[in-house]
Design a protein that fits this description.
The chain is an alpha+beta fold and 183 residues long. The protein has four helices and eight strands, in the order ααβββββαββαβ. A hairpin with a 2-residue loop joins strand 1 (24-29) and strand 2 (32-44). The longest helix is centred in the N-terminal third of the chain and has 8 residues, at 13-20. It is globular and about 40 Å long. It starts with 5 loop residues before the first helix and ends in a 9-residue tail after the last strand. The structure holds a DNA duplex (12 and 12 nucleotides).
DNA sequence: TGCACGATGAAC
DNA sequence: TTCATCGTGCAC
């Protein structure tokens, strides 16, 4: 179980988003590897994407989104939950993929069908922000990639304010998987 | 320095 | 449908 290389993330965000489905998200906590198989993601395409945090440009919070690929962007939402993204494409692009749901594989005891729920179940919080996913205790491994023919494309959740960008089909999930947050 | 609001989840 | 709860970004 080793981290996928940085080249995995240094590609077109849509490609990475689909390729992330079926991969294993791994977080080693107190010597125990918590593992979840990624089954739902959303792509955020950069500053021109009105629904992306990076659309406001480089700020203290979004700086990591504009950094090199293969790093974690973990932010607090509604003052009480955490959400995790992986940074994609070349440095400066401001692209990322939000992890929305995982299927429990190992050492998971709570619900994982939602971006904040998966963070809670895998003990991912603000201390994981800016973490390099290509070496360390938080990473993504090969897993069992989803069949491309089984990938469903839908509009992203909770971005109605983003006009036309809200209607783009940038949410991807594995068809029929019971751990998807909103099938 | 103040304030409106959110890539959510849970309860009602 | 409503609310919890607070960091962020932008207005002033």
């Amino acid at each position: 179980m080793r981290p996928l290389p940085r080249s995995f993330y240094d590609r077109d965000t849509l490609e990475v988003a689909c390729d992330l489905l079926g991969r294993h998200l791994v977080h080693v906590v107190d010597g125990v590897a918590r593992v979840g198989r990624i089954v739902e993601v959303e792509a955020y395409l950069g500053p021109h994407d009105k629904a992306a945090h990076s659309s406001r440009g480089v700020t203290p919070r979004t700086r990591v989104m504009f950094g090199p690929p293969g790093h974690a962007y973990v932010y607090r939402i509604y003052g009480l939950h955490w959400c995790m993204n992986v940074v994609t494409e070349a440095e400066g692009r401001g692209c990322a993929v939000l992890l929305r749901a995982v299927e429990p594989v190992a050492a998971i005891t709570q619900r994982t069908n939602g971006p904040a729920l998966l963070c809670r179940a895998m003990a991912i919080d603000g201390t994981c922000n800016t973490r390099d996913l290509c070496g360390g205790s938080l990473f993504i491994a090969k897993g069992s990639p989803s069949d491309p023919r089984a990938i469903v494309k839908r509009a992203r959740i909770g971005v109605d304010y983003a006009g036309a960008w809200a209607r783009r089909l940038l949410r991807f999930y594995e068809r029929g998987n019971p751990f998807v947050s909103r099938p």
